[in-house]
Amino acid sequence: MDINPKNQPVDRVDGRQKVTGSAKYFAEFALPRTAYCVIVGSTIARGTLDQLDTKRAAAAPGVLGVFTHLNMPAIPGWDAPVGGQADGPPPQPTAETYRILRGTKILFDGQPIAMVVADTFERATYAASLVKATYTRQTPKTDLNKHLAAAIAPSIPWMKDYSRGQAEAYKTAPVVLEADYVVPTEVHNPMEMHGILAQWTSPTSLLLYAKTQGVNATQRAMAQAFKLDPRNVKVHTEFMGGGFGMGLRTWPQETAVVAIARQLGRPVKLVMTRSQMFQLVGYRPHTRQTIRMGADATGKLVGLVHEATAETATYEDFTEGTVNMSKFLYACPSMQTRYRLVRLDRGVPIWMRGPGEATGAFALESAMDEMAHKLHLDPLEFRLRNYSETDPEHNRPYSSKNLREAYERGAAAIGWRNRPATPGSQREGEWLVGYGMSTGTFNAMRWQATVRVVLQADGSLLVQSAVTDIGPGTGTALTIIAHNVLGVPLDRIKVQYGDTSLPPAPTQGGSAIVSTVGSAVFDTCSAVKQTLVELATRPGAPLAGHQAEELALADGQLFVEAKLATQVAVAELLRQNQLASIDKTTESKGGPEQQKYSFYSYSVHFVRVRVNPRTGVVRVTKTVSVADSGRIISPKTAASQMIGGVAGGIGMALTEEAVLDHRFGRYVNNNLADYHVAVHADVPEIETITIDKPDYLLNPMGAKGMGEIALIGFAAAVANAVFNATGRRVRELPITLDKLLAVS
Amino acid sequence: MRDESQPLPEPGQPDPSRRAFLKHSSALAALALTPPVALTAIDHSLDERLAAAFEQLPLQVRINGQAQQLSVEPRVTLLDLLREQLGLTGTKKGCDHGQCGACTVHVDGQRVNACLTLALTTEGREVTTIEGLGSEDKLHCMQEAFLRHDGFQCGYCTPGQIMSAVACVREGHADTPEQVREYMSGNICRCGAYANIVAAILDVKASGQKV
Ligand code: FES
Ligand code: FES
């Protein structure tokens, strides 16, 4: 069935709460006697903690406890697992271990050395300033560029080297490109601060208001850490002020807060500072990539090699799908990938929107542009000549791929024909003008989820899932799905989510939630519908004699499609059968066809830039992003996800870089004034286009994912546009003006 | 202020500088009336709560139209006063350093960052927060416009954006998209709802409604 036949744009179901400030985020729940926790971080990145003077802090007004490696309460099951599977396996332990407030070894800058708890936030903050430490400092290794020789192959099978066709076939091609691309460390920086509010409601039960992308994952992690029955760990995250990946795991300081709350016998709240969010909740790892590409005179790829080397912590190997898309995006007979890690004195990274694919796409899609230029081909035409009709990596068909149409529609919308064929040849006043494009792709997935649907006798509908809505509009999409399956008016549907008391759902990430939880809503609502049809068509019932296929639901009525007058109100049907409600809970997941096809979403980004040749300033003046993400369920929130990806992409392309002073292994710009995310003035007119063709092989709504592809590739489109405008190729993000001025 | 060169008191021992401050501070008029027994109690660190009382000052301020008689520590920001003491959690903390705009409120009709405003500086003033702008049943026209244009995703920057947007229109800085972008650039939206926020603001401005 078509999941949204009228393409109804629906206002966000939680919109009123968000615009009035009544939506409650984790730190905003008032629990009596809540104590405030403030973290004191290490000021060195590597070494040992020699002395820690906590006396003044402990004696400061209102202080309830100063927790350090000397008095940290025991946490019985330390190995808190990582939450979601955004993009491959969770970080893997190494020989080194990091356990918060255990021992004196310092493994990264900002590593907590004390957690100070007081009865007010101000008192905790002041007391934390009184904690004094002395260290034996070792020279930290934090510069990826300096330690490339120490790169290792990660032990995870999923990340092993890949090869098809002839090794290094690119060398045999008449036109060869070899180039290095760099993506710096970037930080998620969601607007809401990270932290947790923890209360022990009994010696064996726990209530958590968390900032997590998956309440079930946090529940599992805490149950394991404190050896509790998971059913006794309640986690609530109905609203989350952005995640972008940093909420994909339970971080050690969250676990520590829970331990401290137990010790103190009162609720404890931690709200980290913005600068601590650079240190303690992950980041997109600094990654160097090399692309080697060979093409023949007809513009066909002969061979491609994609290598990536990324930073990780000494104590965990974090990996992501940086080189993945190169394996299947283009039809290239010979292809090799290599992925390496360098363990540095750094906190561990975590997936950041688009994750590795966004990093990888910058390299691959910049290289495609460079090769097109060498071949004197239009970059769009070059991509079309290497279009992969089937998946060359797995030798199987794609479940759906409408990328060609996406290219065409995006090119028309940006006015691609206006692109100057010769770089640096178009001007607007003193500004140089250029156009660029790129492709993005990400796995389209469907995991497992359980959903409860209750149709009440008054005709209203309740839908329940533990899933967290970090901002994409999950609740709105689920409402639209239920509405279209069961014909219950939108304003009579209530979706409850973001709490472990509801049926389990996976962690929000990997663009898989509408596909996964949406399908569970679809299936469960379909089961409710089936019950309704049975009740209505039984002998003696209002629609007796009619077949299920003849019946449809709309506006609270079950009717015969051919004869609209023949109908029965759903509420009446329940009343006649003396049912208070129809209450169904089902588990739902993908079928065996998932092995027969390759499932991907695609995006195409087109941008137009102006570059000031005198100052090197780059302004993005117009963008068009096209998504091939299956059937669009909620057009309004889907468009928002796209424009959000563009804003993130502009930041990634032009301004975002977390800078370390490698002498000390510490950040120099760990705040929002110095780490530049895109602001209003950076973001121009954005056009979004959705191809909107269903992929029923993935799920019954035909919806693929969108959150990642909205960002993946965007930075390359900007770099390509800058090249088109100036003739200058910047291979190291962000494209700041110094890089454009340096060579002139 | 503490003289950093003085030796530090041992834990559990009275802090001399604290005692000296309480005894000699002329700023605390109330102290003159403090019974000696209370000072003795402070000397022995017996009653932290009593000490706390001396660290607080009275504050009279109107918040969302309601007169409030409060008692706050001088170091408490308006943001923390709203969120932690008054339960007005619609105003958000995104940086605590005046860098993000999530905490934007109006003080005497001007938009300010509540995180950079010490609560005591609002003495005698009128503070308006998102809760004072409209309610779920009766949205302010700017809230309506944000809802209609989907000017948010996670919603965390939203109260600040809306308070800033109202001020932006009132200031006469909402005539063109460029102007709105410039005058709204102090409000970061990491979800990147900017295009929709600008559309919402221009919509309100064009409608001629009184904000
Ligand atoms: S919290 Fe005040 S500007 Fe960020
Ligand atoms: S809506 Fe999430 S930060 Fe603006």
How would you concisely characterize the structure shown here?
Chain A is 23% helix and 26% strand.
Please tell me about this protein's structure:
The complex is a heterodimer of chains A (744) and B (211). The mean pLDDT of chain A is 95. In chain A, helix 7 packs parallel to helix 14 (714-726). Helix content of chain A is 23%, strand content 26%. Chain A has 3 domains: 15-22 and 447-589, Aldehyde oxidase/xanthine dehydrogenase, molybdopterin binding domain (Aldehyde Oxidoreductase, domain 4, 2-Layer Sandwich), CATH 3.30.365; 31-139 and 191-242 and 247-280, Alpha-Beta Complex (Aldehyde Oxidoreductase, domain 3), CATH 3.90.1170; 287-445 and 595-739, Aldehyde Oxidoreductase, domain 4 (2-Layer Sandwich). Chain A is globular, with a radius of gyration of 27 Å. In chain A, strand 18 (390-391) and strand 19 (396-397) form a beta hairpin. Chain A starts with 14 loop residues before the first helix and ends with a helix. Chain A has 15 helices and 33 strands. The relative contact order of chain A is 0.14. Chain A has a 7-stranded mixed beta sheet with strand order 3-6-1-13-10-11-12, with helices on both faces. In chain A, strands 8-17-15-14-9 form a 5-stranded mixed beta sheet, with helices on one face. Chain A is α+β, with helices and mostly antiparallel strands and 744 residues long. By secondary structure, chain B is an alpha+beta fold. Chain B has a single domain (53-207), classed as Roll (Ubiquitin-like (UB roll)), CATH 3.10.20. Helix content of chain B is 37%, strand content 12%. In chain B, helix 6 crosses helix 9 and helix 7 runs parallel beside helix 9 (194-207). The longest helix of chain B is centred in the C-terminal third of the chain and has 14 residues, at 194-207. Bound molecules: FE2/S2 (inorganic) cluster (2 copies).
